[in-house]
Amino acid sequence: MVASALCPALFFCAPASGQGKTTITSGIARYHRNQGLDVRVFKTGPDYLDPLILEQASGKPVVQLDLWMVGEAECKRLLYQAAKEADLILIEGVMGMFDGNPSGADMAQFFGIPIAIVIDARSMAQTFGAIALGLAHHRPELKIAGVIANALGSDRHEWLITEAMPESVKLLGCVRRHPDIALPERHLGLVHPNEVIDIDERFDALADVMFQSGLTTLPDPVKFEDDSEAEVEKLLQGLTIGIAKDDAFSFIYAANIELLEAMGATCFYFSPLVDNLLPKVDALWLPGGYPELHHKVLAANQAMHQQLRTFHSSGKKILAECGGMLYLMESLIDLAGQKTDMVGLLPGQGIMRERGGCQGMQYAPLPEGEFRGHAHHRSRCEHKLEPIAFGRRISHPAPGEPIYQTGNLTASYLHLYFPSDPQALASLLR
């Protein structure tokens, strides 16, 4: 049986990264939240920091949508569930509008969601109209709500943009530059919202800017459908899982937590930065994050190091992803060349670097099964272990990220999307 629900929805795309999609989406979400509406925001693609920002703005958990990683059926289910409960659905795209396979445009087309194209207008005038025209008409089958001109510098700038707009493309609004309320960035994207002391004040100010820019009219309703009937098996019933979560370890898919709990597991959180004791659990998950920004504090917490070594020697399962893997290595070298001792469960060292590593979507072929996931990091590892396997890129024949296992410890740069293989997840953690 196919169930359906109607809800106003809008998909934010851009010609490239760095155009202001997250800022615009956050401001609109906060405005409608402040009006008492239930706003559900989604983020396309494998991203952790933007969802945290969007969650802070909207007041609701933000999960990923991706036709490859999450799958068509699960995307349909998530959107339908949101449409049943919410007054507004906002979806932030990733990279450029047509980048990737599948792209943000593919996602919007698949679900019939109108697109608002965000274009940073700095350093351009009449050319803005040409870019807007090209993006809006590149694929005639797309539903284009219109274009948002972002980061305008003056009344004159706004007039030039407005005059250059083609008649066939609607200008939804013009947003002025507001450097005082812009969201700060660092090497992997936006700064964690916990580090921005006045984050809520910035969101409220952004909400006012969105209203003044004419961007707060509710979009047209979209019909969302779902025909899924599958029940989640309780494969982790009775299992307790300790999850590292603090300013150093925060790259966690909300969908991963939801699945763990739906499968019957009980999740306990701990902080490698400040806690001296691990929770009494059956398995550990150390996700990615920014250990390189907190390496001195992590190194100083020797009590936690000993707790982790004892846990590993007991034979219980540990999953370490990206930053979690760096933390479990013998040492970490920062960009200044400073070497800091880490936990030492993985022989070798992690080394920070200016450029990115092996980026993008990959399959993770583990002995327990095959997950889908992605890699995104600014470091490299000099392991003394031989990898048991390599990730497989979805669009390139070259090997992906190496995967390591020692005892019951599994480690890799890959961030696993747990719902892609619940059976493998149960084997990995039990």
Key attributes of the depicted protein:
430 residues; alpha/beta; Rossmann fold; 10-stranded mixed beta sheet; 8-stranded mixed beta sheet; globular
How would you describe this protein?
- The protein is of the alpha/beta class.
- The chain is built from 12 helices and 26 strands.
- Strands 13-11-14-16-25-24-23-20-21-26 form a 10-stranded mixed beta sheet. Strands 1, 2, 3, 4, 5, 6, 7 and 10 form an 8-stranded mixed beta sheet that branches. The chain has a 4-stranded mixed beta sheet with strand order 18-17-19-22.
- α1 crosses α7.
- The longest helix has 14 residues, at 21-34.
- 48% of the residues are buried.
CATH structural architecture of the largest domain: 3-Layer(aba) Sandwich
CATH topology of the largest domain: Rossmann fold
Please outline the major beta sheet. 10 strands, mixed
| Mean of pLDDT | 92
Task: Say how many strands there are.
Answer: 26
Q: Helix/strand/pairing class, anyone? A: alpha/beta
Low-confidence stretches: none
Task: Name the beta content range.
Answer: 25-35%
Walk me through the topology:
Blueprint: E1 3-13, H1 21-34, E2 39-44, H2 49-58, E3 63-65, H3 72-85, E4 88-92, H4 104-111, E5 115-120, H5 127-137, E6 144-152, H6 155-164, E7 171-176, E8 185-186, E9 189-190, H7 199-212, E10 221-226, E11 240-244, E12 249-251, H8 254-262, E13 266-270, E14 283-286, E15 288-289, H9 295-300, H10 302-313, E16 317-321, H11 323-328, E17 329-333, E18 339-341, E19 346-352, E20 360-366, E21 369-375, E22 379-383, E23 389-393, E24 399-406, E25 409-412, E26 415-417, H12 422-429
Parallel strand pairs: 1-4, 1-5, 2-3, 2-4, 5-6, 6-7, 11-13, 11-14, 14-16, 16-25, 17-19
Antiparallel strand pairs: 1-10, 8-9, 12-15, 17-18, 19-22, 20-21, 20-23, 21-26, 23-24, 24-25
